[in-house]
Design goal:
- By secondary structure, the chain is of the alpha+beta class.
- It is built from 50 helices and 25 strands.
């Protein structure tokens, strides 16, 4: 045959192709003419993208008939389809039809490569069957598939034009909104008549007027409140409606005012003692104290309104008058209003909160309405010449409850509904999504006359988009850490893969390390371009109704321009890096001869100069990526800087600025944790990928033209190649997931270490170790021998410390946690006798007691584990009170110790404890305790539908009481000892039904204290007022000034908010148990708050009727029978005179307890129930208790000192170091205070033990660390909170349907968004119960995990993520969704790990190969990377 010789390297490969193409056409034309019967056409194709086309369709030239198979689509035919032809010289040769494709081509990602088929010589015709078809191949010529610049410019212009149009429309929309809402000051907005809810008959507006007439004449100014509504049939109905709300709230305010007067008296007494009897401090009249207390109460009650005014004054062009209002609240400001007007405004604010019902969760809406009412009253007062003239405050009930009307129409935030009926005469809005309380609240910030939907909650896949966008700071930082770890890994020489070798040093990068600057930057640019595009488009759409309104988080033109600029910079960086990656100047391929060296001639040519490394060339090569990363750092830092306030400041005088010591501490902690992540990824995680890539493991190369061999070299679609490719993909996916997961483990390890260290520092670790209590007082014989714990007792509690110790021992004895022998030993350690334990009024003076001695707790209470743990923690925690808890605090035992002679009861902050209950077990019934012993009791029981879905009654072998006795054997012996019975006989008599009523009740209460019952929570809460009642100063004060009140009614109260009491949804057993608790503890301030509704039973309706007949004689039947009183919240007490529960206060409602339009979209029940009780709370502080808690009276004695963290004790002027207003009682130091929990259900089985350990870790060590990071939230635990804050900042929690599933954490969000503090203390511990079965634990985790999804949907979460700053954003991730999101990632890694090894098996990749490559995946199971990921 003819041979085409290569003309030399001076010819371009394309020229060679053309020459060969012309030669082939000429020669084959001759052959076709000579062999027409054997050749059926010639196919000449410059490209080789389909090998099999010569055997199909019009190109079937290789032969006819289906029996001929000429190669395949992906392989070239060799001998199968050759055709014999006759040559001119008579000999026979062969033609290879499919060999005529004269160019080999290949596509790789953004590259397309080609080269001549035959570079040296080609035999077009062969005489032998084994003739070679191809010669030596040259390297392919590759080029990027870039679009033409004309099209790039054209489409870029179109994109910019579309963005300009969008921005212009947004600007015009903003102008319309500003003209409608912001050009007018809120004081100029005229109140509108709001529509009644659909289906409510409308009548003429009815007005009711009530004069504000407090008991103190100093506060009586003749001011009045007018209630206007179209719901009432006549003015008498409106009058009693207003009377119930106004009188109730006014009585609460008077009680708080009396407590504030006591606090001021205590403050002056303390400062007088410090200043050694300065007469100026005590020379204050009673009226002056009352006026000063009224001003403080006014500041605390209207603090939210003042903060709202300050925010609008700073964000409104006409905020001058608002700023004057703010200045009037400043401490030390000249107060132009008289005390009666201040008190009247407090009553107005509280009445608005009470009338607003659930709108109380929208404090800014209430502030907006309050401002309208106050301005209207001022406008009507302009003609009055004096400042003490009477003012009338007019309240429109329909306007006040506008949002609730809309929620009853549609509370589904994902469904559009026609709301045109709500906008009469307006065509602006017709369809809207369901409202929630955040929409109502934001309407108040935006100054809207009518409530409107202001935010579109995400749903479906958009929740994932929100997750990525909100936590993009974390993902970006983790991506940067991964790139840095990869940079270390490329020079680590890990494994047997050359990838990690010969890439230069850290400061002299070559090859792969140098490429990482480009490819890492390119990936980052692409990711951020997508993120910024989503932010500009998706978030703008979500917040479009709030565009330009000035509310926190609402988009405006400046916000859009910032993110559009970031988008354009990211796109520019992306284009620049794509250009660099496609240019041989910036990206080179290592020569095969330099695979094992990187010096001399093998130095990376990009940084090589005269066979030396050149830093100048390095800088020139890295100019583009360096510029990109620098821009990324600056842009990232600017867009995610910390902003104040996140929402609206918590108080009008808050001046938030960076605390550099705290900020530096948080930054150092996170830098350390991120360094740990980098080390883990570089030296543990990434080595798992050694040798695992498509080129080396599968023989598939996409980004270079080097020859590779493997299972994917010739055929990709085969049963070996595809598993190989999939296994590599899964390995790298596992690595990327672990990249975001490792910070979770690092954080928890640091939490454990730091939390443990904090416990050691506070002497609160090792609670189970031996403790010797030394309560020996000094004596004349041994003056130097003073017990250490005696000093602590004397320092904290004063000379009457034995009363505290006696109360502690009595509490442990009455709970059957110890017997008489143990109680005797404890009493004798303090010099007391056993007779003091049962005496009604024991004599505890020094002459009547002995000196006492040392007490070995472990020896004395060896069989009393719970009692020993309580006493051990009690004494160890006292040391923290001796230390200075805060800067400026000065504990003075002579005036601050609760049993000191000069102690003033005003130093104790009034506390209200709220226990929300639905239908949980109050006290175990006798029938329940006797059940469980039959075999049928171990099966699931039938529910109301007849299905066996109800839980079992017992274990089928023991009664439930026997099971409890088996868990608490010694405590049952103690209880029988107190009853004077034999333990076995007592059990048998109870089971047989022969026990006396007193014994049966004692046994039920014994069981209730060892299970998760409401009675345990109630009894624990009542120990606090019992502890205060034991103080001598408290007894003297009440006997002198409040003889008719219960001790200590002014300082503590317990509210049991029972949602189903007396209704068809409750149970008779629980109702009877509640009545029993009320009766037994009627001597303490213990109240019941119930929800009156149509489902309420006859007894509750009779209670309501008796109350109405007493307060409004002759009108009760009219209110009830006409349906005017359909819903109400009632505060009840036990009346000894009638020996029954009676209603003492009633607040009628328009709407049901759980507002909403559908069963699936009702407000959260617990939050709504808490709100029911909060409106009756009279304490300065509130404690949020769950229905499965308990308390130890020893801890209750420490509560008054913990509550001082809200308002520190005053200091004399000579001690002040902060400002001239450091004694102002309106400046609260924090809003929430969290503390430890002891999980008592740890003794209820294996599940309870493990769940208790996890919960204790979260509630103690984890809370310590979060508090140190200044990002702790409220998680539903027994936190203390500022009651004034809860009343005028949205309640104790949020209850929007679907959004606030985890209702408690949003209270913590509220504190953080407003720039306030929520610390955690270790010196106090309450008991808490947790789930003890797998099903219950699973249900709890499912509920909280679903709540984490709702967090992502909320605007609060987005506001915090956007404004907290970089390091605090990382902390916030762990305070919000980290736990459940990380568990999701762990689950995914488990599946991926299994899939990886299945694919390895299918691809014939053995553990031996993995070990040979040095991959950590080849390590045995115990140290496997997959096990680490799990």
């Amino acid at each position: 045959g003819q041979i085409v010789e290569d003309a030399g390297n001076q010819h371009h490969p394309l020229a060679q192709q053309q020459m060969m193409l012309r030669y082939a056409f000429t020669e084959y034309s001759k052959l076709e003419n000579e062999n027409k019967d054997k050749l059926h056409g010639i196919l000449l194709d410059e490209w080789m993208d389909d090998w099999d086309r010569g055997a199909r369709g019009p190109f079937a030239i290789a032969g006819r008939g289906p029996e001929i198979q000429c190669g395949s689509r992906f392989t070239q035919e060799k001998l199968e389809c050759r055709r014999p032809v006759s040559m001119q010289d008579g000999r026979e040769a062969y033609v290879y039809p499919e060999a005529l494709g004269l160019a080999a081509s290949m596509s790789k990602a953004f590259y397309h490569c080609a080269r001549p088929r035959f570079s040296k010589a080609v035999k077009l015709l062969g005489d032998e069957t084994t003739s070679a078809l191809e010669g030596d191949a040259e390297a392919m010529v590759c080029a990027t598939t870039n679009p033409a610049w004309t099209w790039v410019i054209f489409f870029s212009a179109l994109l910019l034009l579309a963005m300009a149009i969008h921005l212009f429309r947004a600007f015009m929309r903003m102008r319309q909104v500003v003209n409608r809402t912001q050009t007018r000051e809120p004081s100029q907005v005229q109140p509108l008549q709001a529509a009644a809810p659909p289906g409510t008959p409308l009548g003429e507006p009815q007005d009711a007027k009530m004069v504000i007439a407090p008991a103190r004449t100093t506060l009586q100014g003749g001011h009045s409140i007018v209630l206007r509504s179209r719901r009432f049939s006549d003015e008498h109905v409106a009058e009693w409606w207003l009377d119930c709300h106004c009188h109730t709230q006014m009585s609460i305010l008077e009680k708080q005012l009396a407590a504030e007067v006591l606090a001021l008296q205590a403050a002056r007494a303390r400062m007088a003692q410090v200043s050694h009897g300065n007469p100026e401090l005590s020379n204050v009249s009673e009226e002056g104290e009352l006026v000063e207390a009224t001003r403080t109460l006014h500041c605390r009650t209207l603090e939210g309104y003042a903060a709202w005014c300050k925010y609008l004054a700073c964000n409104s062009p006409n905020g001058g008058s608002l700023l004057e209002i703010v200045n009037s609240f400043m401490p030390g400001a000249q107060q132009t209003k008289q005390a009666p007007q201040l008190f009247a405004e407090c009553v107005l604010q509280r009445t608005l909160e009470s009338l607003a019902e659930h709108v109380m969760h929208a404090p800014e809406r209430l502030a907006y309405i309050l401002h309208q009412v106050l301005q209207a009253a001022e406008d009507g007062h302009m003609t009055t010449p004096t400042m003490i003239a009477q003012r009338t405050y007019a309240v429109d009930l329909e306007l006040l409850q506008d949002g609730l009307q809309r929620m009853m129409a549609n509370s589904n935030p994902y469904r559009l509904k026609d709301v045109s009926f709500d906008y009469p005469g307006q065509s602006e809005t017709k369809f809207e999504r369901g409202l929630n309380f955040d929409d109502i609240n934001e309407s108040g910030i935006q100054g809207r006359d009518r409530v409107k939907k202001t935010f579109a909650e995400s749903m479906s896949i958009w929740v994932v988009v929100d997750l990525v966008l909100q936590y993009r700071v974390l993902f970006s930082i983790k991506y940067g850490c991964f790139i840095l770890a990869f940079y270390f890994y490329l020079g680590s020489s890990t494994g047997n893969d050359s990838t990690t070798r010969y890439n230069g040093s850290f400061f002299e990068p070559q090859y792969a390390r140098l490429d990482l600057w480009f490819y890492g930057g390119l990936a980052d640019a692409v990711i951020w371009s997508i993120l910024e595009l989503l932010i500009v488009t998706y978030w703008t759409w979500q917040r479009w109704p709030s565009w330009g309104t000035g509310s926190p988080g609402a988009p405006n033109l400046c916000w859009v321009l910032q993110h559009v600029a970031a988008l354009l910079l990211s796109l520019l960086g992306c284009a620049s890096l794509i250009f660099c990656c496609s240019n041989e100047t910036y990206i080179v391929e290592r020569k095969a001869s330099c695979a094992e060296m990187s010096w001399g001639e093998c130095i990376d040519p990009r940084v090589q100069h005269d066979d030396q490394y050149s830093f100048q060339m390095l800088l020139s090569v890295l100019a583009v990526p360096l510029a990109y990363w620098l821009h990324r750092f600056v842009t990232f830092s600017f867009l995610h800087r910390r902003r104040w306030p996140v929402f609206i400041h918590g108080s009008p005088w808050t001046r938030q600025r960076a605390n550099w010591s705290k900020e530096g501490r948080v930054a150092v902690m996170w830098i350390f944790m991120l360094i740990c992540c980098v080390c883990f990824e570089a030296y543990i995680l990434l080595p798992a990928t050694a040798g695992l890539n498509w080129k080396r493991s599968c023989g598939l190369e996409l980004l270079s033209s080097s020859n590779t061999t493997g299972v994917c070299t010739n055929d990709v679609l085969n049963s070996t190649c595809m598993p190989c490719l999939l296994s590599i993909v899964c390995v790298w996916l596992l690595v990327f997931i672990c990249m975001f997961l490792d910070v979770y483990f690092v954080f928890y390890i640091c939490t454990a270490i730091v939390g443990f260290g904090m416990g050691i520092h506070r002497e609160l670790n090792n609670m189970k170790f031996k403790l010797t209590v030394d309560l020996r007082p000094p004596s004349s014989t041994f003056e130097t021998e003073i017990g250490r714990h005696y000093e602590l007792f004397m320092h904290l509690f004063g000379g009457g410390w034995r009363r505290v110790w006696l109360s502690i021992v009595k509490d442990l004895y009455q709970e059957s946690l110890m017997g008489k022998r143990e109680a005797k030993g404890l009493l004798e350690a303090a010099g007391l006798q056993l007779g003091d334990l049962i005496a009604n009024d024991p004599v505890l003076d020094e002459p009547h007691i002995t000196r006492g001695g040392e007490l070995d707790v472990a020896a004395q209470l060896g069989n009393c584990k719970v009692a020993a743990e309580r006493i051990t923690f009690f004494f160890r925690s006292l040391t923290s009170f001796k230390r200075k808890r805060h800067e400026g605090d000065d504990f003075r035992p002579t005036v601050d110790a609760m049993t000191a002679e000069q102690f003033h009861v005003g130093s104790i902050t009034p506390l209200t404890m709220i226990i929300p209950v639905y239908n949980e077990t109050v006290v175990p019934t006798a029938g329940f305790l006797k059940d469980g012993g039959r075999l049928s009791d171990a099966r699931n029981q039938r529910d109301n539908l007849g299905e066996r879905m109800a839980p079992p009654r017992g274990d089928g072998a023991n009664t439930n009481l026997a099971f409890l006795i088996s868990q608490f054997q010694q405590e049952w012996v103690f209880m029988a000892e107190r009853q004077g019975s034999n333990p076995s006989d007592l059990y048998k008599s109870f089971i047989a039904g022969h026990a006396s009523p007193e014994q049966e009740q004692s046994i039920r209460m014994w069981a209730a204290l060892r299970t998760q019952s409401v009675a345990k929570t109630v009894l624990g809460a009542l120990k606090y007022p019992a502890a205060l009642a034991a103080l001598p100063a408290m007894q003297q004060h009440y006997s002198r000034y409040h003889a008719s009140k219960r001790v200590p009614e002014m300082h503590a109260e317990v509210l049991l908010a029972h949602q189903t009491f007396g209704s068809s949804q409750g149970s008779d057993e629980n109702d009877v148990a509640v009545r029993m608790l009320l009766k037994e503890h009627s001597h303490l301030p213990f109240y019941l708050v119930i929800d009156f509704r149509p489902e309420s039973g006859l007894q509750v309706r009779q209670m309501v009727q008796r109350f109405l007949n007493h307060k409004f004689p002759g009108k009760a039947s009219a209110f009830l029978d006409t349906g005017m009183l359909k819903y109400a919240r009632c505060k009840c007490f036990w009346d000894p005179a009638t020996d029954d529960v009676q209603i003492m206060e009633l607040l009628p409602r328009i709407f049901q307890l759980r507002v909403g339009s559908e069963d699936a979209f009702l407000a959260q029940g617990k939050a709504s129930n808490q709100l029911n009780a909060l409106l009756f709370a009279s304490g300065h502080c509130v404690q949020a208790l769950d229905s499965n808690m308990g308390a130890f009276i020893g801890e209750c004695f420490k509560v008054p000192y913990i509550l001082r963290d809200f308002l520190p004790p005053p200091r004399h002027e000579t001690e002040q170091s902060e400002s001239q207003h450091s004694n102002c009682r309106s400046r609260v130091r924090c809003r929430f205070i969290g503390f430890r929990e002891f999980i008592f259900t740890g003794r209820h089985g294996t599940v309870g033990k493990h769940h208790a350990g996890a919960e204790w870790t979260f509630g103690t060590i984890y809370q310590r660390f979060l508090s140190a990071l200044a990002i702790r939230m409220h998680y539903g635990h027994p936190d203390f909170l500022d009651a004034f804050w809860a009343r005028n900042r949205g309640g104790m929690s949020k209850c929007s349907p679907m959004v606030n599933l985890s209702e408690d954490i949003f209270a913590g969000y509220n504190v953080t968004m407003r720039g306030e503090r929520s610390p955690h203390v270790d010196s106090l511990e309450y008991e808490k119960g947790r789930e003890t079965t797998f099903n219950a634990a699973s249900g709890f985790f499912a509920k909280v995990a679903g709540g984490s999804v709702s967090l992502i949907r909320s605007r609060d979460n987005r506001l915090l993520c956007e404004n907290l700053g970089i390091f605090h954003n990382l902390s916030f991730y762990f305070a919000s969704i980290c736990f459940y999101f990380s568990n999701l990632l762990v689950d995914l890694t488990v599946y991926l790990y299994v899939v990886v090894f299945i694919c390895f098996t299918l691809a014939s990749i053995s553990l031996g190969y993995l070990k040979e490559m040095g991959s950590m995946l080849g390590t045995e199971w115990v140290l496997s990377m997959g096990v680490v990921s799990m």
